[in-house]
Amino acid sequence: MATLLNGIRHLPEFLDREAQVRLVETVRAIVVQAPLYVPVLPRTGKTMSVRMTNCGSLGWVTDKERGYRYQPHHPATGEPWPAIPDELLAIWERLAGYPKPPEACLINFYADDARMSLHQDRDEEALDAPVLSLSLGNSCLFRVGGLERTDKTGSFRLQSGDAVVLGGEGRLAFHGVDRIFPGTSTLLKNGGRINLTLRRVNR
Ligand code: SIN
Ligand code: FE2
Fold first, then answer.
1. Which residues have their alpha-adjacent CB atom under 5 A from ion ligand 2?
2. Pairing of strands 140-144, 175-180
3. pLDDT digit string, tens, across residues 156-200
4. Which helix (H) or strand (E) is 24 found in, with range?
5. What is the 134 CA–ligand 2 centroid distance (Å)?
6. 8-state DSSP, 7
7. Distance 133 CA to ligand 2 centre (A)
8. Which domains does the chain have, with CATH numbers?
């Protein structure tokens, strides 16, 4: 594949099985407080195939009327997002190389037929902080390119327990999820994939 921009790191098997199991339990507890919802794209009003929720002082949301943004409360319940659990804050400290803690953790749930089209993560002011991603459950084909949508892209598999850091020159790299590979993990009883991304929003 095309060489990754500096600052993009793939850390296979970053979380061992035990840590993955614990993290799934943590995510399930968050989802009880802050239920998954169906995000809607701005302008077109099309629904995304991924279901989302967040933890943190801010959460990333999108709807037809107001578009992409961070906000301190859940769009359906109106409640503040649950706090980011300590185990995730510790991972940020280990991997992010950033002096401030993350403010948002976006939780993406992919059913086995979900995907995410090529995009940049650019709704944060703190572009000097990386986006730190953790994968749980079924493997996916992750695609990453350059700083322009038309730049050459390459893809590789992300497996349960893998971490990806999008930082440095690669902070604004286009990326997406082409597909999920059903039946590639026993971590989630009903299949699918969970992706967590930790983000610093304010500088
Ligand atoms: C995202 O870009 O928000 C998700 C990436 C992933 O699911 O690995
Ligand atoms: Fe993203």
1. 121
2. antiparallel
3. 999 999 999 999 999 999 999 999 999 999 999 999 999 999 999
4. helix 17-33
5. 12
6. T
7. 9
8. 8-199 (2.60.120.590)
Please state whether the predicted TM-score (pTM) of the whole model is above 0.90: yes
Q: What is the pLDDT of residue 82?
A: 98
Q: In sequence order, what DSSP letters do the residues of 37-103 get, joined into one string?
A: B--B-TTT-PBPSSEEEEEESSEEE--TTT-SEEESB-TTT-PBPPPPPHHHHHHHHHHS--SS--S
Which atom of ligand 1 sits closest to the CA of residue 140?
8
Cα 52 to Cα 36: distance, rounded to the nearest angstrom:
5
For ligand 1, mutation pick of 141, 177, 199 (most atoms within 8 Å of CB):
177
Given a contact cutoff of 8 angstroms between Cβ atoms, the answer to whether 114 and 50 are in contact is yes
Helix (H, G, I), strand (E, B) or coil at 126: coil
